[in-house]
Design brief:
mainly alpha; 2 domains; extended; membrane; Protein YOP1; transmembrane helix; transmembrane
């Protein structure tokens, strides 16, 4: 019974065959989510769900059933997202930018969606270039820190 209901819902989405009542509900739910996203707690929750939950599930699928290209896309996404979140922590951006979590959600979608390939663009044109240029000094710094930690 649940499978039939799910199948009908999927067909409605694919055919864009919603009743006015269903469409009103979907629009209302979307507006409510956007409104809640203006509050820091809900905004962060919303942005984190977009940024982590769905991509994590897609990563699970890629690791178990995906090809090399899909894994490469997802690894690029996680690398870019890590840099993005590290910058967020250091800069304290959420406290300075109004509606930050809505912007972060949109950026995360741009990074992740296969139609935009934002993460591959950022990775190939910025992160990869900077890391390759500084790889020797980064490796040396990591080695020095590791050696100091082992001595103490």
């Amino acid at each position: 019974m649940f499978e039939n209901s799910l199948k009908r819902s999927k067909e409605k989405v694919q055919n864009k065959d919603f009743t006015p009542k269903e469409l009103s509900f979907l629009i209302g739910a979307f507006v409510l989510l956007i409104y809640l996203a203006t509050y820091p707690f809900f905004g962060r929750l919303f942005a984190d769900i977009i940024g982590f939950v769905y991509p994590a599930y897609k990563s699970f699928q890629a690791l178990n059933y995906g090809n090399y290209e899909k894994r490469k896309e997802l690894l690029s996404y996680w690398v870019v997202l890590s840099f993005f979140y590290a910058f967020e922590c250091v800069s304290n951006t959420p406290g300075k930018v109004r509606l930050y979590y809505i912007y972060r959600s949109l950026i995360t979608l741009w990074l992740y969606l296969p139609q935009t390939k934002g993460a591959q663009f950022i990775y190939n044109n910025i992160i990869k270039v900077v890391l390759k240029h500084n790889q020797k000094s980064i490796d040396q710094t990591v080695k020095d820190i590791s050696n100091k930690m082992h001595l103490n």
